[in-house]
Request: fold
Amino acid sequence: MRQVIPDAKLIAVNPRDSAIIASEMDDARAAQGQLGVQVHFLQASTMSDIDAAFAKVVELRARALAIGSYPLFISRPDEIALLATRFGVPAIHPLRAFAAAGGLMSYGSDFADTYRLAGAYVGRILKGEKPENLPVQQSTKVELIINLKTAKALGLTIPEPLLGRADEVIE
Reply:
């Protein structure tokens, strides 16, 4: 997001005070110093709170919204994309469905790769291996999806190097 909006001084991040995403909050706090931005944590724990959270982003004049892995936000990529568009907020979301639904960008795990790894585990277990003997694995394949139609609607220009790194560009 920083490459798309290099002059952003305030970035909103969802949500505040959630043990579920404590490491993401730590990363956002660390980014404040490294990137020279102020991070505002939103609080939204119900669907009715989400409209208010987007209104707060606009009120604060935050230049971007980074959506973390809080279940309420990631379980509704279509609704979040619609709200981001309605409020004119450039947002990045961890699921591909967000960019496909009209959100600006998504950057997150490639679920096909994750399911492939899970299937391989199931196969090994069905062949007799004990689960406790299997190594812990984590999908390392991530994908960047950029929606150029949304970028244009928001008046943003996506830098060519970022477009070149994208796994998919939606036009």
